[in-house]
Amino acid sequence: MSTDTNAASGLTSDDLSKYNREMGTSSPTSSPATSVLSGLQTVRGWATEFYRDLHAHPELSHQEHATASKVAERLRASGIEVHSEVGGTGVVGIVRNGEGPKVLLRADMDALPIAEATGLDYASHATATDGDGNEVSVMHACGHDMHVACLLGVAHLLATARDVWVGTLIALFQPAEETGDGARSMLDANLAKVIPTPDVALAQHVLPAPSGLVGTNAGPTLSASDSMRITLHGRGAHGSMPQASVDPVVLAALVVVRLQTVVARETSPGERVVVTVGSIQAGTKSNVIPDHAVIELNIRTYSEQTRTSVLDAIRRIVDAECQASGCPKPADFELIDRFPLTDNDPDTTAKVAAAFASYFGERSRPLPMQTASEDFSDIPNAFGVPYCYWGIGGIDPDTDRKAELQGRVAQDIPVNHSAYFAPVIQPTLDTGIEAMVVAALASLGKPDSIDVPQGQT
Ligand code: ZN
Ligand code: ZN
Prior knowledge:
The protein has helices spanning 32-37, 40-56, 65-77, 144-160, 182-188, 191-194, 248-264, 304-325, 346-360, 378-383, 397-405, 409-412, 425-443, and strands at residues 81-86, 90-97, 102-108, 127-129, 135-137, 167-174, 200-210, 214-216, 219-222, 224-233, 237-238, 274-282, 288-289, 292-301, 332-339, 342-344, 364-366, 387-395. By secondary structure, the protein is an alpha+beta fold. The protein has two domains: 32-222 and 341-441, Aminopeptidase (3-Layer(aba) Sandwich), CATH 3.40.630; 227-339, Alpha-Beta Plaits (2-Layer Sandwich). It is elongated, with a radius of gyration of 24 Å. The chain starts with 31 loop residues before the first helix and ends in a 14-residue tail after the last helix. 49% of the residues are buried. It binds zinc ion (2 copies). The site of one zinc ion has 4 residues, from loops.
């Protein structure tokens, strides 16, 4: 992606002065959404404090115990029915408001093993023990704290303004998105018995784009992701006697180079595929040729067909390189993480995009496909229901514009999972709350007494 398309997400704003970032001025007509969001100032204070506290106290995947209890407590304070410990630390709030559509809204809660470098006064200094027993720093470097604060605000606002909608709101707070198995853990814990079957599922994510913008895309939006561990078996020997070895270090180097051709030479230029070797481990000492090497790969694809052909190509290349090196046994392949494709339902997305256009005006944009991945779609896929997943910007618009003018977007705009990534609280928090309320109301039912302007549905 070229830097002239603005921030790394590709969610662009050609001229930010075009939209008015003053709160409440972007919605031209009165509607259920403007009615619900007239209460925004009543949640902005506590939602901001909630966000700052979560940001300062992040928890790793499947360890979101304090986060989950704060979420449950906040939902109860809003008078919402709460189900806790669904699949470990999952929390669900349900607002039952008569016969009508059932809409599931999802936020993820986990943080990452990263040492925060933002220098914010609410920066994290937290550490935790990861799954391998290592003490690691922990940081909300993907904006999940923002997702949680937004959804709590949304649930409160919709629970308060029950007179403008009918149906059931399911606010789902999911653990362990970063490890790709949090949605699955809630489903395995009988989520289907805890919540009514939704008619539609909605979720959002903070992206490195100007704060205040929302972006939607129909069809494939986030890639499917596979992570693979490959163990290459060589033969160890003294460093002075290479003739006695099958050197797995040289073999691993050749494999890494040859794997670059999967995208460069085997994939159509119009197809989007990423193959990254993110980890390579071998040996302990300069004069010992080790007996094995381990490489870890991450693969991103946008269709099941491409995914299969890329995984087959990787296996073919590794097997052939092992044979070329004379390895004593074939390599071992292990899939260690798998994220599903996020493939937005066209009808649901059209409805959400129309509601965004009506409410946000110029702040609603098309969202290009992202190479990131998510396990959100596991939930609607398990229920067999349509979904829409959209992006919201988190970068200070002035910082973003300055970086763009200087051609320094790649250098100056931190992306998700960077130690410097933290969304500006405003207008990100308001925009995230507004987007979820608007999208939820586009799917929830409307009582007969509510007059909905044309184009709002
Ligand atoms: Zn992430
Ligand atoms: Zn994330």
